Amino acid sequence: MFGSMTAFLIYFAVLLIIPMWASGRVKATYKKYSKVPASSGMTGAEVARKILDENGLYDVSIEPVKGQLSDHYDPRSKVVRLSKDNYYGDSVAGAAVAAHEVGHAMQDAEEYAFLRFRSSLVPVASFGSNASIFLIIGGMLLTMSELMLAGIVLMSFAVLFQLVTLPVEFNASSRAMDQVVSTGVIQNNEERETKKVLNAAALTYVAAALVAVIELVRFILMYFMMNND
Fold it and tell me: Catalytic residue numbers?
């Protein structure tokens, strides 16, 4: 009994600690390099516009958005939205984030396979993320393995979405790094700092995927235990 309780506590500690550590890492890294001005003196909006134009993406616009680290690319509206600090600021962190979001715009323009696959998963992944836990818990309480299995199947789509997100984000960061170097947005001595910002951001997606996989595996094991009983 004590061993089971210990394992249970460790499991939940891992689920809490991994995302908190990743989130803390990206915030600390961003905060540090948001205070380091880029040698080019370009704002995030200017960086984004320069890279977009260099790649012929004149139809993609750039807008400021409220919040910190709320930066994203909207493929429906063809808009790169940058948090105000990054939009108006001229930091290394702002340049890195702006270039990363433009990387998603480049993926969209090229119909990058993983981005298209991820977009196709959005409806079922969203439904699965919301409904799966109720089916799983319901199946456990009612000892209905079929109901639990249905929940696991739905959850698997949400987990697949998290996994497919990894190559999408890493590819966007790779494109960002190539672009800020080739367009002269950053100098050689700034490459290491830019990579640190991009790598820290990637950790949040890795953590989310890892937690999702662990959670799915746990429920699969519980399903088999229920059937064996």
Answer: 101
